[in-house]
Amino acid sequence: MKFVRFQQGAATRYGVLEGENIRIVEGDIFGQWAMGNQVVKPESVKLLAPCAPSKAVCIGLNYHGHAKEMKSELPKQPLMFLKPSSALTHPGGEVEYPAISQNLHFEAELAIVIGKEARKVPAAAARDYILGYTCANDVTARDIQKGDGQWTRGKSFDTFLPLGPCIATDVDPADIDIKLFLNGEVKQASNTGDLIFKVEELVAFASQVMTLYPGDVILTGTPAGVGPMQVGDTVAVELSGIGRLENTIVKG
C-alpha cells in the first residue's frame, strides 16, 4: 500500500495510490481509517510531503560505502542529529540555497515513518511501530556544517527536509535500491543492504532517547557519492518500491 497526503481545495487529506488514481482515505492513517469511495486524479490535487513530522531524527555515516568514501572508521553506535519540522519540503517543491552558504549538498536517504508512539522500543519489536517508508533528501550546507563543528545549523534551514512522494508499507527496508539524480545524471547508487545500522536498530536506538510520535521520521543515512548542487539544478531521490522525490534548487 502507498499512502499519499495532498491538498484538495482548502482541505488536507490522505489517500491511497491505485494505479493512476488516488482513493481518498476517511479518517487518520495514524489512527482509525477506512477506504473512502471518492477517487481523484493526482494532477487535480497538490501533492504534499506524506507526513508532517514533529521532528526528523537523522543518522550520519551509516553506509559502509560512505564511511569508506569519507575515510572514516565505522561508528560504534548510530550518530544521531535532528532536523526541525520547519525544514519540511514537499515533492516538486523548491529547496532554497541559503545566501550564507557556498556549498550546498544532496544526500539521498531512506526515511522510516513512525506509525504509533514509540518509547524505549526493543529492536525485536521495532517493526510494530513503523507505518512505512519514504524518500528523503538530507540537504546540507556543508561549509556551515564543517565550520560550526556540529551539524544543527548546516542541516536545519527551511526547505532542507524534502520528503515523499508516498509512504510505502509493503517494502523490505533491507533491500531497497537507492539512487540520486542531479539534472538527470546518477550521482549516488547503492542499496540499503549496505547500511551499518539497520532499520530496527535505529528505531530502538532513537526511542531510548526521545519519544517518537506518529508521523515522525528517521532518516537512515546516505550512501557514497554526496556532492554539491547549484541554483537551477533539479535533484531527484529514487527508491525502489517507493517512488521518486524531485525538487529544484532556488536562490534563498
Can you put this structure into words, describing what you see?
It comes from Anaeroselena agilis. Belongs to the FAH family. It holds the Pfam family FAA_hydrolase. InterPro entries: Fumarylacetoacetase-like_C (IPR011234), Fumarylacetoacetase_C_sf (IPR036663), Rv2993c-like_N (IPR018833). The structure is a single chain. The chain has 252 residues and is mainly beta. The chain has two domains: 2-47; 51-251, Fumarylacetoacetase-like, C-terminal domain (Fumarylacetoacetate hydrolase, domain 2, Alpha-Beta Complex), CATH 3.90.850. It is built from four helices and 20 strands. It has helices at residues 64-69, 142-148, 152-155, 199-209; strands at residues 2-8, 11-18, 21-27, 33-40, 46-48, 55-60, 79-84, 88-89, 94-97, 104-106, 108-114, 130-137, 140-141, 161-168, 177-182, 185-191, 217-219, 227-229, 234-239, 243-251. Strands 1, 2, 3, 4, 5, 6, 7, 8, 11, 12, 14 and 17 form a twelve-stranded mixed sheet that branches. A hairpin with a 5-residue loop joins strand 3 (21-27) and strand 4. The longest helix has 11 residues, at 199-209. It starts with a strand and ends with a strand. The mean pLDDT is 96.
